[in-house]
From TrEMBL:
GO process terms (BP): methylation; tRNA processing
Keyword Transmembrane: no
Biased composition annotated in UniProt, kind: Basic and acidic residues: 317-328
Matching Pfam families: Tmrp11_N, UPF0020
Source organism of the structure: Astyanax mexicanus (Blind cave fish)
Residue numbers spanned by region Disordered: 316-336, 448-469
First-listed, main subcellular location of the protein, grouped into a coarse class: cytoplasm
Domain tRNA (guanine(10)-N(2))-methyltransferase TRMT11 N-terminal: 11-182
EC number, as in UniProt: 2.1.1.214
Record's protein name: tRNA (guanine(10)-N(2))-methyltransferase TRMT11
Gene3D superfamilies: Vaccinia Virus protein VP39
Ribosomal RNA large subunit methyltransferase K/L-like methyltransferase domain mapped to chain residues: 192-322
InterPro entries per record: DNA_methylase_N6_adenine_CS, RlmKL-like_Mtase, SAM-dependent_MTases_sf, TRMT11, TRMT11_N
Alphabetized PROSITE patterns for the sequence: N6_MTASE, SAM_MT_TRM11
Length: 469
């Protein structure tokens, strides 16, 4: 299960979290590509495994990944691995002693942890496993509270909780280098955020989106369906300048009804700027404004380094755009009054995605990324439904299941060329470049699935905080 990123033979062991499994590989690849490293999984690579071996990277590379990742828990310099304790021992005996020496010398203190995946060991069994490593030439003293060096023995008992083997399927031993940023999920939890709404994006997913988008310091990032700005919070944490628009006046101005229980109206200063202030990134705030994403309000130029968004799909908020009575019915011939009365019209999902991709093609810098959620009806989903654009290449497409019949897919695209007149012809010729009308029925299918479920007497569909909209 190795990721090959170059020619050097040094190996690292990435210990991954077991939530958001589908998002992990694109995240790690995006973070490595920020360092100019391209990685390809080996033939034995198992994406769902909690342990990935990384080849051909420097310690700076892996430290830089760990400074951003919310999918990986920690990284270790891999000293040995094998399918059995005997294989692990031979592998460890082959690891150059001079590379070990600095960390084992008598002046230093250390501790060894034992981590088992898919099995819980008794304390005594853990101690036995540590004792069995006595062939390693540790010279220093054990210090459990504040050691100079931390080592870990990992035992992988597979992924099936209903079929746990007696002996581990694979073992690893390594020296701890650094932890990832899982702590951000807690520190930025929506539950403790100053300004939230019904569809505020979960903190972990917001950071994953910012990572998939390769957001970096001084970038300018835009969210055209900004809501309460959860995605801007994540991007500003990584040093980007952030801005956004939303059709909803109350959300942009932080007024109106509150989303929190026990609070009727939003209080003063409940707005996106205050959210950034809460996390110490107010200096990154450019601005937000009321605007309809279906209308061209921006000067035609490459304005943004990344566009990250969670478009409405009509489940927990309406998909509306501004229109005029003229678009609905023609006024009578003798009509002499105000001819432009803005009203709100349905904004079909297929148009939302077509507009979004066109917007990204026109306003992203070359190499800039568009990251967004695409809702899908699972029984009918196939890869061909993912909207394409001649100027954008698809980088990744990861599923987050919402219910037995619905999910949303995190789509990441990268701008590869400037729009040309001929692109319009390509869009006509290839159905994948045209808006896919099937997306429009997502709402009906979502609710039809729920109705069927409720008829069977099941619970309401999952509406986890920050999931779906
Ligand atoms: C799923 S929510 C975004 C939530 C946001 N990521 C957050 O963390 O709060 C979608 C947002 O799109 C907005 N919206 C709906 N139609 C729009 C349109 N035509 N133009 C711009 N925004 C629109 C809604 O008001 C809503 O705030």
């Amino acid at each position: 299960m190795a990721l090959h990123c170059g020619k050097t033979c040094r190996q690292y062991l990435l210990h991954l979290a077991h939530d958001n499994v589908d998002f992990r590989l694109p995240e790690i690849k995006a973070l490595l590509s920020l360092r100019g490293r391209q990685c390809e999984p080996s033939e034995t690579f198992r994406e769902k495994s909690p342990f990935w071996r990384l080849h051909g990277l420097s310690e700076e590379d892996v430290r830089s990944v760990m400074s951003r990742t919310v999918c990986a828990k920690s990284v270790f310099e891999l000293w040995g691995h094998g399918r059995t304790a005997t294989e692990l021992k031979s592998s460890l005996m082959e690891y150059p002693r001079e590379s070990m020496a600095t960390f084992l010398q008598d002046q230093s203190t250390y501790k060894i942890n034992v981590y088992t995946f898919n099995k819980t060991l008794l304390f005594n069994d853990r101690i036995k496993k540590i004792d069995a490593l006595d062939y390693l030439p540790f010279q220093g003293k054990v210090n459990l509270k504040d050691p100079d060096h931390i080592f870990c023995l990992f035992e992988d008992y597979g992924l099936d909780p209903n079929d746990i083997p007696e002996e581990p399927l694979y073992l690893y031993f390594g020296r701890w280098i650094s932890d990832g940023q899982r702590e951000l999920i807690r520190s930025h939890s929506v539950k403790k955020r100053h300004f939230i709404g019904n569809t505020s994006m979960d903190a972990g997913l917001s950071f994953i989106m910012a990572n998939h988008a390769k957001v970096k310091p001084l970038d300018l990032v835009y969210d055209p369906f900004v809501g309460t700005g959860s995605l801007l919070v994540a991007c500003s944490h990584f040093g980007a300048y952030v801005c956004g628009t939303d059709i909803d006046y109350n959300t942009i101005h932080g007024v109106g009804k509150a989303s929190r229980k026990n609070q009727k109206w939003r209080g003063p200063d409940e707005n996106i700027r205050a959210n950034l202030r809460q996390y110490g990134t107010e200096f990154s705030y450019v601005d937000v404004m009321v605007s309809d994403a279906s209308k061209p309000v921006w000067r035609r130029a490459e304005l943004f380094d990344a566009i990250i968004t969670d478009p409405p799909y009509g489940i927990r908020e309406s998909t509306r755009r501004t229109g005029s009575h003229k678009e609905v019915t023609s006024p009578p011939d003798d009509f002499s009054g105000e001819s432009h009365v803005p009203v709100s019209m349905a904004y079909h999902l297929s148009d939302i995605f077509a507009d979004l991709l066109n917007f990204a093609a026109n306003h992203l810098a070359i190499g800039g990324r568009l990251v967004y959620w695409l809702p899908v009806y699972r029984p009918e989903y196939c890869e061909e439904m993912v909207p394409l654009h001649p100027c954008l290449t698809l980088i990744s497409n990861c599923e987050q299941t919402l219910s037995s019949h619905t999910s949303r897919r995190l789509i990441t695209m990268e701008k590869i060329k400037q729009p040309e007149v001929t692109d319009a012809l390509a869009q006509l010729a290839d159905p994948r470049f045209s808006p896919y009308q099937g997306h429009n029925s997502f709402r009906e299918k979502y609710f039809s699935g729920i109705t069927k479920k409720n008829e069977k007497g099941n619970d309401k569909p999952a509406t986890k905080e920050g999931e779906g909209s």
